[in-house]
Amino acid sequence: xxxxxxxxxxxxxxxxxxxxxxxxxxxxxxxxxxxxxxxxxxxxxxxxxxxxxxxxxxxxxxxxxxxx
Length: 68
Fold this sequence. Notes:
This protein has one domain (2-60). It is 72% helix and 0% strand. The protein contains four helices and no strands.
């Protein structure tokens, strides 16, 4: 289950963890706790960052179709 979630989580937690110098598992836990305390609003932020990372990847690769 953990590998499935890590594979399909858009890489947002890994990206944020590497930028902040934290483990990606700790970032995931922070997202979960923040979602519980704020009734799901960090999920919107998570999806926005995932969208931004995908757009950034397309721009770097010259807008080619990318199959993972």
